[in-house]
Amino acid sequence: MRSLLGYAMIAVLAWGAPAAVGGRALHAQKGVASAPGPGNLAPVPLFRDPIHDGAADPVVVWNRARKTWWMLYTNRRADIVDTNGVAWVHGTHIGIAESADGGAHWKYVSEADIPYGKPDYTFWAPEVIDVDGTYHMFLTVVPGTFTDWRHERHILHLTSADLLHWKPLEDANLESDRTIDPCLFQLPGGQWRMWYKNEAAGSKIYFSDSPDLLHWTHKGIAVQTNGEGPVVFKWHGWYWLVEDPHAGLSVYRSTDLTAWTKQPENLLREPGTQPTDHAIGQHPDVVVDAAGHAWLFYFTQQSGADAKPDDATWQRRSALHVTELHEDNGLLTVDRNAPALIHMLPPPKNKKSD
Question: How far apart are CA 227 and CA 239, in angstroms?
C-alpha cells in the first residue's frame, strides 16, 4: 500500500475531497454500528471513490473488531487523462470504504495494504470471506500495467486479521493463467467452492473445490454463457448465481450448487432513472443480512444522461449502488429506482446465506 501511515481518523463523505497523507486518505473513526431500525435511505450513488473516481467490483464484509461494514473494491484510475488503451484499468489498487449505519452511508478508509509484486502490478475484483476468525481474500493479480487485455492474470490467496493489512499466501493454481473474478461459498459438507471467469476458455464461469482454501480440484464449467464477476448465495430455499455478461446481470438458481437453471430476464439491464445510475448494472456482490434481507451491490459506468462534455475522462468514471433483491416463485427481481432503505444487521457465519 502506498503512503499508509498508521490508521488515523479522517471522516469524509464518499463524494467529497478527503484529507490525505502522502496522497492516500486515512480513516480510523471508532466504528459503532447504529441501533437496528426500519432502515436508512441510501443516497444515489451509494459511493464514489475520492482518489480516482473509478470504484468498481465491490465486495462487502462485516468488520468484527470495528462493528461496521467494510467494502473493498477495484480502484480504477478513471481520472488519468494521458494514457493509452486500457492502461487506466491497470495499475489499480484495492480501495476500502466503511459504513457505520448498516450500509446506507460510506466513508473512504484507505487502500488495502497488499505487499505483493512490483509497484505497477494490477489488483482487481477482491473476494473476501471470514473463516474462524481470519479474513481470506482471493484477488485477481495482473503482473504489470498494460494498454490491452492480452496478458496473464491469476488469483492470489491472502489472509488478514483486520481487513486492512494482508499477507499474501500463494496462487489458487486454477486451470489457466487467465482466471479472474473469484467468488467463494461453503458447501453443505464443509468444503469450499470457488467460481471464477476463465478467459482462456471462452470467458465462461468455471468452478473448483477445496477442503482447506489452499488445494483446489478443477471441476469444469459452471454455466455455459459468457460472463464475469460471479456471486453465489443461498436465499429463500435456493442457491443463486448472479454474473455479469455486460447485458445487465444474469441470474441462475440451483438446489445443489452444481446444476443451474437460468431465469429469462437479466437484472439491471434497463438503465435507472436517477443520476449516476443511467447504465446497466455491473459486477455485483450480494449480502444476505441477519434479518434475511438480500442486498445487491453493483457499479455503473457513467454514460448517457450523466455525460460531462467538459471532462475528457467522464466515461471512465464509475459509481457504486445498492438495491434490495426480491424473490417471487423462484425468480429474482429488483427495482433500482425505488428508495433503498437499508440497515444490514451483522450476518450469520456465511454472509451470503440465510
Answer: 18
Q: Assign 304 to helix, strand or coil.
A: helix
Please tell me whether residue 316 adopts helix, strand or coil conformation.
Answer: helix
Q: Mark 301-313 as b/e (b = at least 16 C-beta within 10 Å).
A: bbeeebeeeeeeb
Pinpoint the alpha helices (H) of the chain: none
Return averaged pLDDT per consecutive 10 residues of the chain, 354 residues in all.
36 34 34 52 98 98 97 97 92 98 98 98 98 96 96 97 97 93 96 96 94 96 94 97 98 98 97 97 97 97 90 95 97 98 88 80
As a three-state string, the secondary structure of 82-149 is: CCCCCHHHCCCEEEEEEECCCCCCCEEEEECECCCCCCCCEEEEEEEEEECCEEEEEEEEECCCCCCC
Q: Which amino acid is at 305?
A: A
- The pLDDT value recorded for residue 93 is 98
Which residue's entry shows cell 454463457? Answer: 225
Whole-prediction pTM: 0.90
In total, the chain counts a number of residues equal to: 354
Alpha-carbon distance of 209 to 145, in angstroms, equals 31
- Report how far residue 126's alpha carbon sits from residue 353's, in angstroms, rounded to the nearest whole number: 19
Of 269, 316, 278, give the one whose Cα is nearest residue 83.
316
Angle at 210 between CA 207 and CA 213, to 5 degrees: 110
What is the fold, at CATH topology level, of the domain defined by 40-342?
Tachylectin-2; Chain A (2.115.10)
Give the helix/strand (H/E) hosting 230.
strand 228-235
